[in-house]
Amino acid sequence: MNNKNLSKKWLYTFIIIAIAALATCVVGLYNKEYIIAIGTGLVFGVQVFNIIKWKRN
Fold first, then answer.
1. 41-51: average pLDDT
2. What global pTM score does this model have?
């Protein structure tokens, strides 16, 4: 993400990945699969960070 002018395609990609990771995290918690929930929770956190970073640029 060194390029300051990333296309909106990247924003949509970040949002789709974040939604999928959050949904997987919730399902993992519901089924008491804590390792999956932690992993997808981390992915969700990184994607939120990417969205914030994209918005700043």
1. 93
2. 0.80
